[in-house]
Amino acid sequence: MRESELIEKIDEALGSPRNASRKLRLGIGDDAALFRGRAGHEIVLTCDWFFEGTHFLREKHPPSSVGWKCLARAVSDIAAMGGIPRCFLLSLALPASHTGRWLDQFLGGLRRASRKFQCSLAGGDTTRRNEILINVTVIGEIQTGRAELRSGARPGDLVYVSGRLGEAELGLQLSKRSLQGTRPKDPGMKKHLYPEPRLALGQWLAKNQFASAMMDLSDGLSSDLPRLCAASGVGARLEAVKIPVARTSSHNPKNRAATLQLALHGGDDYELLFTVPGNRAKLLPRSFQGLLLTPIGIVIPDRKIVLVNDGGREHQLIPGGWDPFRAHR
Question: What is the pTM of this model?
Fold first, then answer.
């Protein structure tokens, strides 16, 4: 397949003008895309890598999942700012052997994600390589002055998370046993294969000015919370018993301990981590559109992250989530 034919294939799958955002004035096919900005709004930009061997396995993960997840990961950054995704750029490197069925299924998953998140393809780049490498850049927007940053947390604010943590990591463990050709019936498997960025929640929190600081949980609570606290110049004290963990069929206390470790250190959940001033926390519901909103701790002035266990003892929480520059087992 020539590169021009590959681009035509991508355009046929994702570039239909009927599905294009009204803000996308010119998409795939020219030297660059054109996006209409709006008065009173700021443009939100983010990009994300998705590598074979690091983020997915070619022979294990369904191509449709790879297509869905490569966009969902990047869109989650827009959700964390409280923004609205508008369009994206796709840079794709793959071997010639995967320009047929694999590519068709990949584009099918990417198309479904594009429609679900209302985020249209605007262009990108393609090349040939033995490994499959994917880079997605998402362009979004938000009302001026309403973007949620990591730097607004203050001592006394409550620390919240959405959903249940560790489900995606549990799904990853299941996937290592057998994945190809299976359906993601287990909540953890579905979250691992087809994560859903919390766009509606992020926009609702930003619109109502509930959150003082916010980010998405992509690398694990123990690794992401220190980043939010560092940006805000604060620390946090968490209560282990309050952290919402993945549900399993067993209620064994040892099982709770295991799922707590997944919740603390597992990545790829793409839930939202946010802080809320005490007087605003009283107005927050326990759930939003069926999604749990759970206070798990409090912001403290000391620049450290402390975890209080079930017995009341506390210890410093050491980052144990994903870090591409640290050796992982």
Answer: 0.90
